[in-house]
Amino acid sequence: MTAGNVYTVAGSPGGQSGASSSGTAAASTMLNDPEGVAVSGSGLFIAEHRQLPVVEIAATTGTQYGISMTAGDMYVISGRTGQCAVGFDAKVATQSDLDQPIGLHIGAAGHAGDLYIADHRQQPDSRRSPVPTRPSGPSP
Questions:
Q1: pTM score above 0.85
Q2: What is the pLDDT of residues 80-110, one digit of tens each?
Q3: What angle (nearest 5°) sits at the alpha carbon of residue 88, between those of residues 25 and 137?
C-alpha cells in the first residue's frame, strides 16, 4: 500500500451488499451497511448495521474467542447474522442479541483491549457490551 492512497480492505470493491460466512477472505467479504469501525492489534472490527453482527478481520493467525482465525479473513465475533433481538446481557458474544449495531470503541486503561458495542435498537442507547479482544484473554 502507498501512503495517501485509498484501498478496499473489506467488502466488495464493486459495491455489492450481502452477508458472508465466517472464514471468508476480507477482500471477498460481502458487507451490508457497515456503520462503525474500530482497530486494535488483534484486528479490524466492523459493526454491520443491516446484517446485525459485529465482525473482525483478523490481523494474525491464531485462536480468539475459541474461534480458529486466519489473518486477513472475516469472522463474526458478536451477534448473529440476520437475527435481531433485544437483550444481549450475560450471553456468549457469538450468541448475543444485537439489533442494528452502529458504533464500536476499544477500551483503554483498566479496560484496554475490550470492545464496546453501541446498538441503535437496544434501549437505553447508552447500553454497551464489553467483548475482550485480546487473543490471550478469556472467551466472551
A1: no
A2: 666 665 555 566 666 667 777 788 888 777 7
A3: 60
Q: Are 114 and 130 in contact (CB under 8 A)?
A: yes
* Under 8 Å between Cβ of 52 and 85: no
Pairing of strands 73-78, 24-25: antiparallel
Q: Hunting for cell 484496554 — which residue is that?
A: 112
Helix (H), strand (E), coil (C) string for the chain: CCCCCCCCCCCCCCCCECCCCCCEEHHHCCECCEEEEEEECCEEEEEECCCCCEEEEECCCEEECCEEECCCEEEEEECECCEECCCCCCCCHHHCCECCEEEEEECCHHHCCEEEEEECCCCCCCCECCEECCCCCCCC
Are the CB atoms for 77 and 7 separated by under 8 Å?
A: no
Q: What is the pLDDT of residue 117?
A: 79
Q: Are strands 34-40 and 43-48 parallel, antiparallel or unpaired?
A: antiparallel
Q: Residue 47, CB half-sphere, CA atoms under 13 Å: how many?
A: 21
